[in-house]
Amino acid sequence: MGIEAPLGCERQHSSGPPATTFASLARVRVPARRAFWYHEPASFNQDIRHWDVRSVTAMGAMFISSALSTPNYDSLLVGWDQRELNDNVPFDAYGVKYSAGQPTLAHERVVADHHWTIAGAGQQLPPPTIASLSPGTGLTDGGTRVTISGTGFLPNSYVTIGGSQCSVVETSATSMVCTTSPHMPGPVDAVVSNPDGQSVTSANGFVFFYPRVPNVPGTPLATIKDAEIVADWTQPNDYGKPVLWYYLEYSDDAMSWKPRLVSPAENHVVLWGLRQSLRDVCARSVVFRVTAVNVVGWSGVS
Predict the structure, then answer these.
(1) Which burial class, exposed, middle or buried, applies to 86 when counting CB atoms under 10 A from its CB (0-12, 13-18, 19+)?
(2) DSSP H or E segment with residue 224
(3) Could you report the per-residue pLDDT of 54-100, keeping only the tens digit for each?
(4) What are the Cα distances from residue 88, in Å, to 30, 116, 119?
């Protein structure tokens, strides 16, 4: 691949590396009568808004397959739009993107006022947005699976929560699922960064908390079914540390309490064989209370 050398510099050939690099050219003025610039600068990514391009008449293939970032191309458009330019300059920038707003207006003015033919460059996609995080809280030891809802997410988007990586496991244009890393307690920012350089922040959008005991389970509700009594209760919030078991107690004489351990997979228990007959049971009250237990400790009694 040949590179056209500036006037006064030795011409380079594809058989050897060029003596004049893009890094050095970014600091010099472009010579007069320059017709053709550079072809396929694969590793070039600099802010060249200050280049003097008044004498340039053609820039074909200038940024084809380049690594020019959107921020640097935005700067180029805005900077060159404020300079004297030749008319009818062909300018190739396939694969390069520019942002909405001032860069787009600069692009439109260069095309309309100077009749440049800018081929390949396209407006950048809208920035991502975050509508919600679910759940919005998680344990300090990490491992919380968070669903981020919004718009404009791209493949290979990157997520941080509290400045730490949230490992992405699923991505679509409107939803991302990631797993949190360990973090100190408190509210933190959630950030989604797209590979095109755009990002969005949900300020204090997530809260880390230390592990804790479950909430108090809902008050058991007793129902008589045939010769059985079924006690049901609502499951508590376990704060990320699953309930290991429920400790149910019941009393049918208001004097003593009888315990029953209940699997965490259930939130009800069937009692039968009470010492009173069904008729007596119906005539007397049976009182229930339940406690939830996880690795942190015991909840209050319902």
Answers:
(1) middle
(2) strand 221-225
(3) 888 888 767 766 778 888 989 999 999 998 999 999 888 877 888 87
(4) 18, 5, 13
